Amino acid sequence: MLELLSYGFIQRALAASLLIGLVCALIGIFTVLKGVTFIGAGTAHAAFAGVTLAFLIGVSPFLMAVLFGLSTVWVTTFVQEKGKMKPDVPIGVFYTFTMALAILFIGLMKGYRPEVYGYLFGSILSVTSLDLKVIAALSIGILIVLVLFFKEFHFISFDQEMAEASGIPAKRLSFLLLNLISLAVVIALKAVGAMLVFALLVIPAAAAQQWATNMRTMIIYSALIGVGSSWAGVFLSYWLDIPSGATIVLLAATVFLFSVLFSGKRQKARPV
Prior knowledge:
Helix content: over 70%
Number of strands: 0
Number of domains: 1
């Protein structure tokens, strides 16, 4: 174990999984409570379309992923308000639209590009020093905003209309939250992959909700599940030579199923 920890790529993978697991677990709490989990899947596929375009034209994959991810939030919010429709409708449209773009861009590439599929399925063991610096910078930024607006995000997650009536700019804060969700998805894209990052955003928070009795305990449990699953996934994927993204998500999903079956809420729900 100590010898394994001396490897630079393992150190980077553990640091990245700590940041990604923590950020996704915390932002996932508001995603689950507010009922906007589908935005994670839409953003992930939009970001992947940006990555494929970046490899096609030779620019930074990360910058294009951020651009496409945030653009999806902005466009779907505009379409939702303009068309007076529920958010899952425009998200569903752009979810399929951006996935079609990604397939098109891959088809236009000359030759096989294995780096592209790393973003699709995840490869946390291949995180570089530059990747880690970018992940750290964005993670710290997201966490700072979450701390600054924690009470407001908490309020709008439970009752946006009441928050608006109380004088809180609920629509603006809701838009800010969606942008934070988008950025959280982007920083986890290379580690977990576009196909699975949505799960890392939702599962730890959903599992924590089964055990938590208040917001504070839900935050603690979600963070522990997110980081624990990520760290365990790094080691198992290395030892067993299996995909890291899938390993992390499967571990988190196992915790969720255990939580549903054996949590205190389930025990209390049983008839006497």
